[in-house]
Amino acid sequence: MHMKNKHIKNLLESLHSVDITIIDNEKDQFALIDNIIAVTDSLEDLIKAEKEALEKFRPKDYELLKGIEKEEATIVFNKKVNDYLEPKYEADATVKLKKLSEAAITNIIAQKKDITTAQKATIIRFLK
């Protein structure tokens, strides 16, 4: 499936919230696990870039800053990190995803704990 990295990252966060025990079918359980692995693998470069950006743009002696000086440094830091990462989030990638059965999707929708409606929508959008 062809997706933007920001959607892949969102899907990974959503998949991490699924309680696999609510899915009755073993085939769907393995599909869920395979999807987590595929999505994680496709995000390796992005995750590395996020870590690099945090290190690269971290203000010198940041932990020593106080008050307005720290606030201003934080604003500059956040802007630099966002500017650096935005093209990487917008980049297209291809991920091989396995669709889930209607029953598995229904079980995910019924999950009440630790998963938001937006996360459920993301799973349905890409895995139904």
Description:
By secondary structure, the protein is mainly alpha-helical. The protein has one domain. A two-stranded antiparallel sheet has the order 1-2. The chain is elongated, with a radius of gyration of 18 Å. It starts with a strand and ends with a helix. The relative contact order is 0.23.
Quickly list its features.
128 residues, mainly alpha
Topology record:
Elements: E1 2-4, H1 5-16, H2 26-42, H3 44-57, H4 67-90, E2 92-94, H5 102-110, H6 117-127
Antiparallel strand pairs: 1-2
Helix pairs in contact: 1-2, 1-6, 3-4
Summarize the structure.
The chain has six helices and two strands; from the N terminus they run βααααβαα.
Give a quick account of the main beta sheet: strands, pairing sense, barrel closure.
2 strands, antiparallel
The low-confidence parts are: none
Tally of DSSP helical segments: 6
The averaged pLDDT comes out at 95
Strand content: under 5%
The number of distinct β-strands equals 2
Q: Over the alpha carbons, how many angstroms does the gyration radius reach?
A: 18 Å
Order of helices and strands: EHHHHEHH
Derived structural class: mainly alpha
Shape: elongated
Number of domains: 1
Please give the alpha-carbon distance between the first and last residues.
Answer: 12 Å
Oligomer: single chain
Main sheet: which strands, in order across? 1-2
Helix content: 55-70%
